[in-house]
């Protein structure tokens, strides 16, 4: 299989796949089956990130990972803005399993304040936004630092999105890459 399943107990992460709920930019359920997958290289990097977070008393909360190309079309239909949703004709790095959307939580499971919510389509969601409280800015820098030192690159328009370097070179995959699929 081209993808590795990310299980909470195996990676010491919390999984909260928002596209398996209506709490996302489309306002509807996209993933019929809530399962988290990454390319094996991304899974290895995620394991390092989870260990780095754990070392400072935090835990990763995964909001999205592999996204079948069919789901990309649903996002594009809901929001055809290439700053926030990759055009499905070229695909998203999520479609290759080499991108992850995530945040940090404390030991009690409380999500750290990042200044905006996940999938909040607003300039305040940009990494460099000065229009969020200082604590949220620090939390974003903390997340960005953890991700950078464990092999990830950020995306300027979304504080929650990280991808492997060279992500565009990985093949885009459909739901048929999984058995059973997510959609």
UniProtKB/TrEMBL annotation:
Zn(2+) binds at residues 94, 101, 161. Its EC number is 3.4.13.22. It holds the Pfam family Peptidase_M15. The active site is at residue 158. It catalyses: D-alanyl-D-alanine + H2O = 2 D-alanine. One of its GO terms (molecular function) is D-Ala-D-Ala dipeptidase activity. Catalyzes hydrolysis of the D-alanyl-D-alanine dipeptide. Belongs to the peptidase M15D family. This is D-alanyl-D-alanine dipeptidase. It comes from Inquilinus ginsengisoli. The gene is ddpX.
